[in-house]
Specification:
It contains nine helices and ten strands. With 252 residues, the chain is α/β, with parallel strands linked by helices. The protein folds into four domains: 81 residues, Rossmann fold; 33 residues, Double Stranded RNA Binding Domain; 55 residues, no CATH class; 69 residues, no CATH class. The strands form three sheets. The chain has a four-stranded parallel beta sheet with strand order 2-1-3-4, with helices on both faces. The chain has a four-stranded parallel beta sheet with strand order 7-10-8-9, with helices on one face. Strand 5 and strand 6 form a beta hairpin. The protein starts with 13 loop residues before the first strand and ends with a strand.
């Protein structure tokens, strides 16, 4: 990973924008959407966008310690601007490190078609229900399992459902518990994480603990939730523990 994706709060903050024309207009619209205060090169700011890729302007700004984006000049950029799927407050950013804006755009269009317009309303509803969720499931592990179950494919508040935000009260009131404790075996056909099946990738993202044979590669284990417990074992465990456990082994 050559860049660290971050979301910057720019409301009311100064951002330098230089250059003119279509590219500058597009960057101006983007900054205005984010609430930034657009200023010229002489002003004080922490970020700058050089919309015409002017190397001299980039050099002057960098000499002042300002992080710079130079349009169509990834070699000069301290940061790049991603393609954005906006379902406020849900934001999805697609970046290619400046390699191909066209690819980022194509991916954004695909994702746009997948996600319902009311996805942001679901995020807001879950935020507003945080107190009720904690009261319903005081134990953190049980609460996480309940949320995972509700948001799973076909769950009561499946994010890809248009009615998910409206169904949050029913999810809370209906006694939907997290998934029962279970052990799911996964036989890996390849050491390449890109070869994981959709089911295996989803289970890795949900698991509480991952039991695995010693030869399972780190690249596969890295696809598991960051806080999932990883346990090296020689065989499938008899008592895996509460929640969702996985047993990973390579196919011979």
């Amino acid at each position: 990973m050559q860049s660290l994706p971050v979301f910057l709060r720019l409301q009311g903050r100064a951002v330098i924008l230089t250059g003119e024309g279509e590219a500058a207009d597009a960057k101006r619209r983007l900054l205005e959407r984010a609430g930034a205060r657009i200023v010229d090169e002489a002003a004080a700011a922490a970020l700058a966008i050089v919309s015409d890729g002017d190397e001299a302007a980039v050099a002057r700004l960098k000499a002042r310690g300002i992080l710079v984006n130079a349009t169509d000049r990834p070699d000069l950029c301290d940061f790049t601007l991603p393609a954005i799927v906006d379902r406020e407050p849900v934001l999805i950013a697609i970046g290619t490190g400046g390699a191909s804006a066209g690819l980022a755009k194509a991916l954004r269009q695909r994702i746009e078609a997948m996600l319902p317009a009311r996805l942001g309303a679901l995020a807001t509803a879950l935020h507003d229900a945080r107190g009720a969720i904690r009261a319903r499931w005081p134990d953190a592990a049980a609460r996480r399992r309940a949320i995972d179950a509700g948001l799973a494919v076909g769950g009561v508040i499946d994010p890809l459902s248009d009615s998910a935000s409206d169904d949050v009260p029913d999810w809370l009131a209906g006694g939907v518990e997290g998934k029962r404790s279970r052990l799911e075996p996964i036989k890996l056909l390849s050491a390449d994480p890109d070869d994981l099946t959709l089911r295996a990738a989803r289970l890795l993202g949900e698991a509480d603990r991952v039991y695995h044979a010693p030869d399972v590669p780190t690249a596969i284990l890295d696809r598991a939730r960051a806080d999932a417990v990883r346990i090296v074992a020689s065989a499938l465990p008899a008592e895996p523990g509460e929640g969702l456990s996985l047993w990973l082994e390579m196919m011979p």
